[in-house]
Each structure stands twice: as C-alpha cells, then as structure tokens.
Write a structure and sequence with these properties.
86% helix, flat
Length: 171
Amino acid sequence: MNIVNSSVDRYILLSFMGTSSVGIYFFAYQVSTVALLIMLAINSAFVPFFFKLYDTNKQKKNYTEIYTIADKTVLVSGIIESVLLLLYPIVLLMIDKSYASSFDIVPVLIFSNILMSIYFLNTNALSVSKKLNRKKIVGIFLGVLLNIILSYILVDYIGMKGVAIATLVGF
C-alpha cells in the first residue's frame, strides 16, 4: 500500500499534466527523501530495541522510554528536514532552471516525510497485537484512498502542489 501511496502522485501528474511535470515532481520528491533515508536507517536500528523495551515493560505498561526515544528521533528528523529545506536554494543553483518550479513543492514533501518518519516509528507499536495491526492496515488503506481522491481534485486547481498536498494528507 505504501508503494501505491508514493506512486499515485506521479501517475496522476502524468495523466493530467504530462511528463515534464512528473520529472519536476520526482526531482523534488527525491530531494525531500534524503532525510527520510536517514530516518529509515534509524528506525531499522530502533526496531530490535523497541521490541526489547516492549517485552521488558509490557507487564508494567510503562512505555515512557520508548516514546522518549521516538520523540527524539522525530526531532532529529525535523532538524534534518529543516536543514535540507534551508539548503534547497543552493541545490537549485546547481541544477537546470527547468526544475525551479520544484521549489514550491519541496516544503510540502519535506513535511510529508516528517510525518512518514513519525508513522514508521509508531508502526512498530501498532505491530504488537492483532487488533492494533488491523487498525494500522485500515489506516494505511484510508490514507491511500484519501491521497488518490485529493490528488484527482487538487491537481486541477493547483497542479503539482495539489498532488504534493494530497500525498501529505494521505500519510
């Protein structure tokens, strides 16, 4: 489902705006995912630690340590994404001017990646029981559905930025 959620935007752009908009959007998307790669690495390292803490604390139902680590990780994600946003004008100086319109959508996609980082951290907690896992699946499905609907509506009004906003809301 996450593959669909992160691909639907390009399909809709191709259908409504053509290949050049897909190229510009994909460039902005790639730039915005630099920090997400770091967050995925942190999350991968965090998963075994999370389940160890969960096993240790599930009798006490004290998950403060887990959430403290998650909060710090989200803070790091926000800082990385903010630095990336501040450096983006420098990136624009190094690329072809035809990509300059990506500047409008990078902040939206960066914020989307911050939310995705929060999702990745919290999905660990949603995987500890069948009931929570079902809720996670329903949430993902509804997010993808919302992304598709909003993308179709907003692409007509605000183009690439509308699709980026739909992606943000879908996550």
